[in-house]
Amino acid sequence: MDEKFMWLMLSFWTGGNINVIEKLDKYYKDIKKLIGLDKGDWYILAGKKVITEKMAVSIVENIEKYTEEYIKNILNENSIKYITFLDDDYPANLLKIEGFPKVLFYKGHMPDNKKVSVGMVGSRRCSRYGQRMCKTISKQLSEYGVQIISGLARGIDTYAHNGALEGGTPTFAVLGCGVNICYPMENVETYMDIIKNGGGIISEYPPGVEALGWHFPLRNRIISGISDSIAVIEAAENSGSFHTVRYALDQGKDVFAMPGRIDDELSSGPNSLLKSGAGVLTCGKDILQEMMFEIKPTIENTSEDQIIKCIKNRDMDIEELKEKTGLSITELENRLLELVLAGKIYEPTKNVYGLVV
């Protein structure tokens, strides 16, 4: 049995409990010794307060159940793959955080380490405005090859994934349960579409582990850890989304927040972040411009020629461009964004565009 599989086995034995795994690793500093412990040794560890007595009982029961053969069968039967921190393709950003998962389970694929990733978070009870803006921004980013990372929860997470699916770049959901469980079940179609379209369902919890309340704050450190920056769409102050923000700030990540009405509870969180210096998020361009050195836009020549021809002799606002090009406002905004980031046009004032000479 190789070292990677030993970490996999420990994950099954502990139910993926990172706090327990970290304590055991710190105590022994040798996975081979951990895996080789006798049943009685686990109770001795409980006596020394390394783990609780309840956890010792659970581990001893799981040792009998989760043999090497049984684990391999579970993974194969559910089309589940795994990756450990010892693998070269383990998410590079995630290795930089404290308490990173030693093992990640996934269905589909893992994010591409060479591509930019943005974590999108927000309220489960988001407004219609929040839904629309989240989906629009997520789609804009996805169209530029940005990987959207979220949690598949109701509300903002759902619209983030669906916008990314429309944009065409694979999106990835980090769950607070085993990857063979779609939680919430109402998102099963999105769950399947994520896998079908080249993305992935990711979790530090072994298959079969149910969604528990304390799993989700810990799940958020993975969303932040995988991502290059975090976007907060709608969230009350001190909501679950702020777990992700705190992780992001601790990890030195940029945080963007979508401003909202000052009397709206769901805007209190983003507005508070903006007061503290978060980046203003009104469209995908706000994030893309911060990352443009890593973004490689793709431009359809027909649209490009139309726009450049229109502004060749004078600056023009977006409404006039829409009328002259015949493009929909969404497509026009996307093309203008691409041209700005490519350095071919500029925006001297909001929604007015001129040719770079």
Any overview of this molecule?
By secondary structure, the protein is α/β, with parallel strands linked by helices. Helices cover 47% and strands 13% of the residues. The protein contains 16 helices and 12 strands. Strand 7 (229-232), helix 11 (241-250) and strand 8 (254-257) form a beta-alpha-beta unit. Helix 4 (39-47) runs antiparallel to helix 5 (53-65) and helix 7 (128-143) runs parallel beside helix 8 (156-167). The mean pLDDT is 90.
Biggest sheet strand order reads: 1-2-6-5-4-3-7-8-9
Which segments are poorly predicted (pLDDT under 50) over 5 or more consecutive residues?
none
Quaternary status: single chain
Head-to-tail CA distance between termini: 63 Å
Average pLDDT value?
A: 90
Cα-based radius of gyration, to the nearest Å? 23 Å
Strand element count:
12
| Structure class | alpha/beta
Name the beta content range. 5-15%
Instruction: Give helix % range.
Output: 40-55%
- The gross shape turns out to be elongated
Can you write the helix and strand succession as a string? HHHHHHEEEHEHEHEHEHEHEHHEHHEE
Number of helices: 16
Q: Tell me about the largest β-sheet.
A: 9 strands, mixed
What is the secondary structure topology, with strand pairs?
Elements (H helix, E strand, L loop, with lengths): L2 H12 L3 H11 L2 H5 L3 H9 L5 H13 L2 H10 L3 E4 L18 E6 L8 E5 L6 H16 L3 E4 L5 H12 L4 E3 L13 H9 L3 E4 L11 H12 L2 E4 L8 H10 L3 E4 L7 H11 L3 E2 L3 H7 L10 H10 L5 E2 H8 L3 H13 L3 E5 L2 E4 L2
Parallel strand pairs: 3-4, 3-7, 4-5, 5-6, 7-8, 8-9
Antiparallel strand pairs: 1-2, 2-6, 10-12, 11-12
